[in-house]
Each structure stands twice: as C-alpha cells, then as structure tokens.
Amino acid sequence: MPKKDMSSIKNEEQYEALRDKGMSKEKAARIANTSDSGKKGGQAPPYEEWTVEELQDQAQKVGIEGRSKMKKEELIEALRNS
Length: 82
Description:
Layout: H1 12-20, H2 25-32, H3 52-61, H4 72-81
Helix pairs in contact: 1-2, 3-4
C-alpha cells in the first residue's frame, strides 16, 4: 500500500516495486519520476549503443549532476549506479 508521503512520486507502483528490490528511496524515486517511467518495459538498447547526447539526456532525467563533463563510459557507470 503506498504511503501518504509519496504524493510527489509519479509512478507509485514502479516506486514500490523498486523499493521491494532493495533500491534506495532516492534511486527508486528518480526512476519512478522520469517522464517515460514504466513505459519502455526493458526494450531500450544497452547503454553502450546510446550516443553521448542520449546518455546525457537520460542522466538529466534521473538527476545526475556533472553529466555534461562526463565521458561516455562515466555516463554509463553513473546511470547504472544511480
């Protein structure tokens, strides 16, 4: 059952599922609040196939700071660990 303080979470169902998998509140909220939250269903290609611009856009969506100065490998690592 969703908590009352989650009113700022856009996709509460996804948030709860991510929390159940052991993700931190912050990471689960970042993912659940992206504009395409819950829509892709794992169909996106691996980050290695993305352009740097695409990686920077995704990093912006999940709130990664310093993304504009990161190299492709650094963006991939930050996205996977955010």
